[in-house]
Amino acid sequence: MEIKEARFVVSNTDVKKCPPPNKPEYAFIGRSNVGKSSLINRLTNKKTLAKISGKPGKTRLINHYLINEEVMPKFQKKSG
Ligand SMILES: Nc1nc2c(ncn2[C@@H]2O[C@H](COP(=O)(O)OP(=O)(O)O)[C@@H](O)[C@H]2O)c(=O)[nH]1
Ligand SMILES: [Mg+2]
């Protein structure tokens, strides 16, 4: 898949508040500081899409990013 567009959608601490699972999703899961954010930025060719930190334990959130929105226009951000 060619990534043409990528944007941050929302961060959550509660999985119940995450966007509805109405799209294919790729999950990047791993220990703190292993390079998850760096990998997301590399794949999307956006240096600042996912925040990268030198210190472990900075991010304790579930972050959702939307890739190629024009291919999947029905996505709606879930509020709250
Ligand atoms: N040497 C090296 N450092 C990396 C690599 N990928 C990420 N890092 C560094 O590892 C640290 C944590 O990366 P980050 O992407 O924030 O990890 P995350 O906590 O899993 O999201 C940052 O200082 C990155 O610059 C890599 O492939 N090689
Ligand atoms: Mg990270």
How many angstroms separate the termini?
31 Å
Indicate the overall shape: globular
Q: What share of residues are in beta strands?
A: 15-25%
Number of domains: 1
Broad structural category: alpha+beta
Radius of gyration: 13 Å
Approximately how much helix is present in the residues?
A: 10-25%
Query: Helix tally?
Result: 1
Give the ordered list of helices and strands: EHE
Total strands: the figure is 2
Largest sheet: 2 strands, antiparallel
Main sheet strand line-up: 1-2
- How would you state the average pLDDT, rounded? 88
Unreliable stretches: none
What small ligands are held by the chains? guanosine-5'-diphosphate, magnesium ion
Commentary on this structure:
The structure is a single chain. This protein has one helix at residues 36-44; strands at 6-12, 62-67. It has 80 residues and is α+β, with helices and mostly antiparallel strands. It has one domain. The protein has a two-stranded antiparallel ribbon. The chain is globular, with a radius of gyration of 13 Å. The model has no long low-confidence stretch (mean pLDDT 88). Magnesium ion binds next to helix 1.
